[in-house]
Amino acid sequence: MSGLRARALVMAAMLAMAPAVRGRDAKPPADMKPYTETVPGTSVTFDMVPLAGGTFRMGSPAFEAGRSEDEGPPHEVTLGPFWIGKFEVTWSEYDRFWLDNAVAQAAYASEIKAAGVDALTRPTPPYADESFGFGKGRQPVISVGHHAAMEYARWLSRKTGKVYRLPTEAEWEYACRAGATTAYSFGDDPVALGEHAWSAGNSEGQPRPVGGKKPNPWGLFDMHGNAGEWALDLYQKDAYKTRATTPAVGPVVMPTERIYPHVVRGGSWDHDAPALRCAARLASKVEWNRRDPQRPQSIWWLTDATFVGFRLVRPLEEQKELIGLRSRVTKESP
């Protein structure tokens, strides 16, 4: 049996627990409930929302206003059930990780190797104020690299005994759309964006505390705007053109040892309306760390991407190729 066929059968079994649905009334399996997680050893909490598995149309049609070529062709995608963060990860949560003295600071391959094959690592000190003066607490964490987000997820997984990770592009778009087929989860008209998102049009030049705008129909806040959100995937402009199966089952472009480019979704407080659409894709680039004087530059912090943060997912059953996944990035990475 081919690997693709085996993977399709596994996903089909998962979806049997949550029949494929497209609408906003999608219901997760009965044993999946919303929950609040407390980071062990702290008073910090975060909320997780269960989403049913299902099939949806990923990407944007050629006629959608503001569309980019890398959003097509639209294609069917099938996903298993998962939980996703109700809010973007905040500084209150992230500070518990990067200031955890029990975890080794590491960036070079030799340092990571010395820490141990399965050891956790945390950020080395930033070049400047990591919050850029925007404040912390319930503010979304910003200016952190893809590697940093992946290591935070590993740290949190180890702390809680649950599997947390970045969402795949497909999971992220499925959650953002919340059953919608329009440009935004609330419709096609960007005039209504101000009720649902912090963008360049209303943010007054800064990110805002999470949860300040209306949630999408599945109860998720800031899927449009505020902080742009890392997806797990390495960015591939023509990724959608390579998906020959219909529907594609749990598609993901696996991250490698490369630092750039990875996918950022949702747009941010610093972007205009087209970048906040459900299907909009943004590729990270080396210029996002232009002002970092270190050589090699940091793999943890971004000096020129004050709009980038992330949220996490927890799969009901993990895809085989994602089990035990960790970042392969080091300071020696290309």
Structural overview:
The chain is of the alpha/beta class. The chain has a single domain, classed as Alpha-Beta Complex (paralog of FGE (formylglycine-generating enzyme)). It contains six helices and 13 strands. The protein has a four-stranded antiparallel beta sheet with strand order 1-2-5-13, with no helix packed on it. Strands 11-10-8-12 form a four-stranded mixed beta sheet. Strands 3-4-9 form a three-stranded mixed beta sheet. It is globular, with a radius of gyration of 19 Å.
Shape field: globular
Treating each run of at least 4 consecutive H or I residues as one helix, how many helices? 6
* Assigned CATH architecture: Alpha-Beta Complex
Look at the structure and give the mean pLDDT.
90
Looking at how many chains there are and whether they match, the oligomeric state comes to single chain
Strand content: 5-15%
Structural class comes to: alpha/beta
Topology:
Elements: H1 3-16, E1 35-38, E2 45-51, E3 54-58, E4 75-79, E5 82-85, H2 91-98, E6 104-105, H3 109-115, E7 121-122, H4 146-160, H5 169-177, H6 193-196, E8 228-234, E9 248-249, E10 262-265, E11 281-283, E12 308-309, E13 313-315
Parallel strand pairs: 4-9, 6-7, 8-12
Antiparallel strand pairs: 1-2, 2-5, 3-4, 5-13, 8-10, 10-11
